[in-house]
Amino acid sequence: MNAGRTEPDSIAGDEDFIRFMQVAREDPEIHQRCITVLSQDDFNRQSLLNTWISDLELQSAPAELRRVLTYLLDSEVAAAALRLLRE
Hints:
Largest sheet: none
Strand content: under 5%
Shape: globular
Oligomer: single chain
Structural class: mainly alpha
Number of helices: 6
Distance between the termini: 30 Å
Number of strands: 0
């Protein structure tokens, strides 16, 4: 197991992540951005996410948003999130 990796069970219980996924399903702009990012191969998905997170940091976006986006760096979490968004 990777030391910095977040386990899916802890993500499933993270209210901020659940709220983000709800918003991503309801807001067309966020939904499309997430679909685009999550549809990429691992390298490109991680690159796009890191850029998105950096941009949010520069904009002083809430730390919770930046934190939940880091979950999507994990390929298993990203695949599950993409399945959810495509339902």
